[in-house]
Structure formats: structure tokens, C-alpha cells
Amino acid sequence: MNEQLDRIEAKLAELETRVALTYAAAEKTRKILWWTGVITVAAIAIPVLLIPLFLPAFMSSVSGSLPTGV
Q1: CA atoms within 13 A on the CB side of 54
Q2: To which H or E segment does residue 14 belong?
Q3: What is the CA angle 65-50-70, rounded to 5?
Q4: What average pLDDT values come out for the chain (70 residues) when binned by 10 residues?
Q5: Against a cut of 0.90, is the pTM above it?
Q6: DSSP 3-state helix, strand, coil percentages of the chain (rounded to 5)?
Q7: Angstrom distance (rounded) from CA 53 to CA 47
Q8: Which letter, b or e, does each residue of 34-65 get, where b requires 16 or more Cβ atoms within 10 Å of its Cβ?
């Protein structure tokens, strides 16, 4: 009976270790996905917000360099 309990306790300890390692890996993956999302949104949102600020100046400089009548 004690031998059977020892095997069960050893298996339980092994499973607890595996669960802890799986949880740590899941947390790392969650953090990676979070920062990937933040960087993606920033890479799209920042240019979209800056285009209206710089487009008029760019257009005026381009239209000023064209010859008249074109």
C-alpha cells in the first residue's frame, strides 16, 4: 500500500512540475503576443495619424516645383 502511495505522490509531483512549466511557457507566449499586437497597432496608427499633418506641406512643396500650366 505504501509503495502504491509513493508512486502516486511521485507522479503527482511530476505533474505539478509539468503544470508549472506549462504555465510559465503560456505566460511568455501571452506577453509576446501582447507586445506584437502593441507594436503592430503602433506601426499602423502612428503613420495614419501623421499623414494628415505632413501631407499638406508635402503637396504644396511638390506643386510648387511643377512648372506653371501643368
Answers
A1: 6
A2: helix 2-65
A3: 20
A4: 93 97 98 98 95 89 74
A5: no
A6: 90, 0, 10
A7: 10
A8: eeeeeeeeeeeeeeeeeeeeeeeeeeeeeeee
